[in-house]
Amino acid sequence: xxxxxxxxxxxxxxxxxxxxxxxxxxxxxxxxxFLVLKVFLTIGGAEGIYQEIMSKLMMPAALDRLILQPxxxxxxxxxxxxxxxxxxxxxxxxxxxxxxxxxxxxxxLANLYILGGLAxxxxxxxxxxxxxxxxxxxxxxxxxxASAGVYAIVVGAATLSPDTSFRLLLLGDVKIxxxxxxxxxxxxxNSTGSNAGGELAHLGGAALGYFYIILLRKGTDLGxxxxxxxxxxxxxxxGRPNVxxxxxxxxPPYKSEPLKDSEVKSSSNSATTQEEIDRILDKIxxxxxxxxxxxxxxxxxEYSNK
Length: 306
Fold this sequence. Notes:
This protein is mainly alpha-helical. It has helices spanning 5-10, 19-43, 47-57, 63-66, 72-75, 83-104, 106-130, 132-135, 147-160, 176-189, 196-217, 224-238, 261-268, 274-287, 294-304; strands at residues 59-60, 142-143, 165-168, 172-175.
């Protein structure tokens, strides 16, 4: 029996190939830590210390300030203030992230989130330093939130399988391409509003999500540097080189269709190669998981459990 949502979330850091739950766990833990910190510092009359800590982790638009805190390019995408802020980000991350992780694997999901956050931060910097409307607001502008990475995953999922439907309250079944288009339009319409920096980051993340999938289908993975950095840190933590690439978590949230006896017999003598797995993953990226044959699903499942 496969575990449910809370099982995977609680065990996020003890299981391999589950980037979705690791990203969610980090966001939730950071939110809770800073929530507790804010309450205690505010009660103690030291709210200014909390604001100072947050400002060092949020991403500034002013380049001279960003140079002094370059880590904020990364840390901003794991920070939230306000329950609804993190709630909606995590809901969309989970709904669309499950699809991306099923189609492309855990590492490429992490690629989308990190690259989406970086792309959102880059567009934010460009607009606040070169667009006349934003320049006057640049020095006071600070950004936080997972939205850019989440938008990359939402649009990436919609690009992968645009006709997949989600059942929405009051609306019924809606194709995810329309959900993605709607949220991109909302971000564009609000890009000159009170949360202009965040909306610009949304658009940067959305653009990254689209082009990441398009280029991946052509054989170019923009996330190779992200994976290289990830493997480096994994090897340090594990105390040994990490040379195995795993494309799917050990306990996927779906069940493969049962094979007939004849299929089991014919397949038991053939070893699955990396080349076959790459071909199967390319097929998923191009046509979706449902396009796989029973044999291909079996090979993918067995390879992920090696």
